[in-house]
Amino acid sequence: MTQASSATGSAPTVALVHGAFADSAGWNDVVAQLLAAGVRVRAVSNPLRGIEFDSAYVGSALGQIPGPVLAVGHSYGGAIITNAALRAGNVVGLVYVAAFAPDEGEALQEIEADSKDSVLDSALQQWQYPGEGGQTEVEFAIDPEQFHDAFAADVSEQQARVMAATQRPISARGFSERTGTPAWRSLPSWAVVATGDRAAGSDVVRRMAERAGATITEAEGSHVIMVSRPEVVTDVVRQALAALAT
C-alpha cells in the first residue's frame, strides 16, 4: 500500500498516544512496522495527570504536527484523543486500540464499573503525590504481582515483570474527570477490540467502539495487543490511512 493521502493531498502522520500504566515504548514494534511501510509516525507522551490536563497537552502536541494527523490511542489514551482531537484542529481520523471512547459527560470510573471482563479495579494500588497548593493528590499503579494477569496476559512472564517495574502511575483525575464533546461524533474512527482484554474489559471496549460507529477489528489478545500482536494494530492503522485517502 502506498502512503495514504488526505483530502488536502498530504499524507497523514500517525500519532500514537499511550495509556495508563505505560509509556510510548509500548508502541515500539508498531512504530517500526509503520516506518517500514513508509508511513510518517510520531509517539506522543501522555502526562497521565487527568482528562483535562492530558487532553490539553496532547491536543497541543497533535496540533504542532505539520499536516493532517491520524490519532491512535491505547486504553486511557483513547479517552485522551477523544477529547484532544478537536482541540488540535488537524486530526482527520481516530483509531482506538483496546481503548476507551467515552461520550460527553462520562467518567472512566463509571464506565469501568459496568464491565464484567475487567479485573483491573482489584489489581490497583493507591499512591500519593503533592498537588497544587500543598494538597495531596491520589494516583494509581497496578500491583506488580497482578500485572501479568490483569494487563498483559499474552506476553512472557519476564516481559510482564519488566513492564510492571517500569509502569507509570496515573492520577485519580484520569478516572474521575468527565469527557467533553467527543471527537468520534465528527471524525471517522476504527477500533481494535482485544478479546482477552482484562484491563479495560473487552465488553466495555466493544460497546464503546460500536457506539462511536467505528470500523471494528476483533483479535485474540490481551490489553497490550500492540505489544503482543503489533501486526494486528499496524494493519488497522494502514486500513484507516487507506480509507482516508479515498
From TrEMBL:
Write down the SUPFAM superfamilies for this protein, in alphabetical order. Answer: alpha/beta-Hydrolases (SSF53474)
What's the superkingdom here? Bacteria
According to the entry, every stretch annotated as the AB hydrolase-1 domain falls at: 16-235
Select a single GO molecular function from the record's annotations and give it. catalytic activity
Entry's Pfam families?
Answer: Abhydrolase_6 (PF12697)
Query: What is the official name of this protein in its record?
Result: Pimeloyl-ACP methyl ester carboxylesterase
